[in-house]
Structures are given as C-alpha cells and as structure tokens.
Design brief:
The protein contains 16 helices and no strands. By secondary structure, the chain is mainly alpha-helical. The protein has a single domain, classed as Growth Hormone, Chain: A (Up-down Bundle), CATH 1.20.1250.20. The protein is globular. The protein starts with a helix and ends with a helix. The N terminus is likely disordered.
C-alpha cells in the first residue's frame, strides 16, 4: 500500500500520483538504456560473427528465464514491504547487464547477460505493477497503466535514436557502454519517488501454490487466450533483422541497419502515442474486446510481412501496426488483470500474467527463429499470425 499522502491523492480522484510519476520516470530511463542496446543487438552479433538463429535463441532463452522470475516476483509482490527494494534492485540489474554487453566477445556471453538482465526485469515487474495498481482508483486503472506504458515507450523511442547517433560517432561497443547512465537513473528515480508498500494488519500473504490456486476462474480463462497469443508474439528484434535483410540489397548493409533501427524507433513512437489512449478507451468501452482487436492487429502485421510488396513505406506501415499491437497488449492486459484479481493476491496475478507471456515469448522467439533459418521468414511469420488470431478469439470468447 502507499503512504498516507499517496492514499489521500488517490481519494481526491487524482490518478497521476507521485508514485505513478516515479514509476513512469523509472521506466522511461530503463527503456532508454535497454532499448538502445536492443536496437544495437543485431549489429553486435554481426560484429561477433554469430549466426542468425543466435538472435532467436538469445531472446527466447532470456524471455523463458524471465518468465519464471516473474512468477516468483508475483509471490514476492504479495508481501508489500518487499515491493520497493525488489523493484529498485531489478532496475539496477537491467542497467548493469545492458552496459556489460559492451564487454561481450561471443554470443553465448550475450545470451548470459541478456538472460540475467531479463531475470532482474522479470522479477521486478509484479512488484512495480502492484504498487501502481494500489495508487489509483479501480476505474482509473486503464489510464494509469496506459501512462506507465507511454512513459516506458518514450524511453524506447529515445533509446534507438540515441543508439543511431552514438554508433555513427563512436561505434557499437561505445554506444553500449553509454547505457549505464539511463540504467542508473532508472533505479534512482524509482527509489526516490515511489512510496514503499506497507502491509495492512488484516493482510495475510498466501503461500506460493495456495496463492496460485486462489486466482479467479475468469482470470485463469483469460490467461489461456494470453498464452495462445504469446506463442505467436515473437521478439521485435526479429522485425529489425527482417527489415535489415529486406533493405540491404537496395541501400547496402550499413544504411540498411540504420534504416531498420529508424523503423524500430517509429514502432516505439507509435507504441508511446497509442498506449495511454488505448488504456483510457479500454476503461470506457470494455477491455476484452479492445484487447482482442489489438491481438488481431499483431496478426495482420505478420500477414503483411508475408504478402505485402516490401518497400521502405510498406515497412513503415507494418512497424506502425506492430506498435499499435504492442500498445494495446501491454496497457490492457495489465489493467484487466488488476480488474479480475482481488487485491490480496494481485501480485501473484501480475506474476502469473508475466510468466505466461514470458513462456509464450520463449516459445515464439525460438520457433520463429528456427523456422526462419530452416525454412523461410514467411514460415515464421505464418506461425506468429496463426497463434495471434487464436489468442484474439480465445481472449474475447473464453470467459
């Protein structure tokens, strides 16, 4: 729970509290650093001489490990006094491991660092989300999570732009070393601004298994649709890789890489612009239907990469659609979780949601990467589209 001052703000119907602002700033700086590194990851792997499938393996393994940490993090988040130190530490781990990419000399080393950083990122997420959900009234959850996603994505826009600027001046490794600055600022902002959680005298934390069993049936049905979608929702770094492959014959490798990062930046701009409106609209018209539409837009993006003639303009449209898909997914999934799960086990609910998404990301990135290398990129995109359509159907109809 928040401090008395933060509770008073909530009761006065203010949704933009000190805690929400602090979480937003922490996400902005954290994403600034790790999205710069994400944009540079394909270039770093090329510098090391890693095969194409290595990118899918790195993202898949990192997301898989992160999913288990998210589940454990949900159990921790049901103990309010632990929320702030766990989340602050998680931001710090992400910043330090992202900086350490600059020291890696092989792709297994990158895999280890990515997995370690994503474990910290996963472990902190339920605590952060629980602190945010406690800071607003139930009818304000969509806009609060939309704002959090928007701030997160402002950093995700700044990250690739910074990466492009720095890599042209000082090279890939020097650009990666710079990420320590926003990484440290993220941890400082969270620690300074966000009130610590405090247990109520009537609050009794459940054991790990018992907490999972207490999750409502409607929420567990919702997770089935989330998981189906997640199996098709592969890492966006694969979009960067595909754009670079498509553009290289016309523009050359160096300019194609810069254009691919610019497209990813545009993707994040759309993500930032749509997150808050999507959350606010979900509060007004219903979350399930809008989330299903968001999932369907993700499927449409994959289909576009298969059938639309590729040009810089068509790639920009597809990256924009991918940004809309991600904005709807991340803002609405969390606000719907807060709506479906009771306060006492809300941390477990956020952990379960994050774990299900993480497992889906693990499967999707590995399978899409394997299909890409062994068959064609179209085979990977077809796999993604099929499961996103299934997820949209289940999340809307399965109640």
């Amino acid at each position: 729970m928040g401090t008395p001052s933060s509770n008073a703000e909530t009761q006065n119907n203010r949704w933009l509290t000190r805690g929400i602002l602090g979480i937003g700033l922490a996400n902005l700086f954290s994403d600034w650093g790790h999205e710069a590194a994400t944009a540079l990851l394909p270039a770093l792997l090329a510098l090391i001489g890693a095969p194409a499938i290595a990118l899918g393996a790195i993202e898949g393994v990192a997301d898989g490990l992160s999913s288990f940490c998210k589940l454990a993090g949900g159990w921790i988040a049901d103990r309010p006094r632990w929320r702030k130190p766990v989340a602050s530490s998680g931001y710090l781990v992400v910043g330090l491991t992202t900086f350490a990419y600059s020291l890696a000399q092989s792709w297994p080393a990158v895999l280890f660092l990515r997995a370690l950083g994503w474990a910290g990122r996963g472990g902190k997420s339920p605590s952060r989300d629980a602190l945010l959900a406690d800071a607003v009234r139930p009818e304000q959850l969509g806009r609060a999570f939309g704002f959090e996603r928007a701030m997160d994505t402002v950093g995700a826009v700044a990250g690739p732009l910074t990466a492009v600027a720095l890599v042209s001046i000082s090279g890939v490794r020097a650009a990666l070393r710079w990420t320590i600055v926003p990484g440290l600022l993220a941890s400082i902002c969270f620690f300074w601004f966000v009130p610590a959680g405090k247990s109520l005298t009537t609050h009794r934390a459940f054991g790990f298994i018992h907490g999972l069993r207490q999750l409502p049936r409607k929420f567990r049905s919702f997770l089935v649709g989330v998981f189906a979608h997640g199996i098709g929702d592969f890492a966006p770094t694969l979009l960067i890789l595909r754009a670079g492959q498509i553009l290289t014959p016309r523009y050359g490798a160096a300019r194609a890489a810069a254009l691919a990062i610019s497209l990813y930046t545009f993707h994040n701009i759309v993500f930032a612009a749509v997150s808050y409106p999507a959350g606010t609209l979900a509060d007004r018209i219903g979350k399930r239907g809008l989330l299903a539409v968001g999932y369907a837009i993700g499927a449409l993006t994959c289909i576009g990469f298969i059938f639309v003639p590729m040009s810089l303009a068509s790639l920009a449209i597809l990256f924009g659609l991918a940004g809309i898909h991600m904005a709807a997914q991340e803002a609405i999934e969390k606000s719907l979780t807060a709506e479906l799960v009771m306060t006492e086990i809300r941390g477990t609910g956020f952990g379960a949601l994050a774990a299900i998404n993480g497992i889906g990301d693990f499967v999707s990135s590995l399978v899409v990467g394997a299909l890409w290398s062994a068959v064609t990129p179209a085979a990977g995109f077809s796999f993604g589209a099929g499961f996103m359509i299934l997820g949209a159907t289940l999340v809307y109809f399965l109640r």
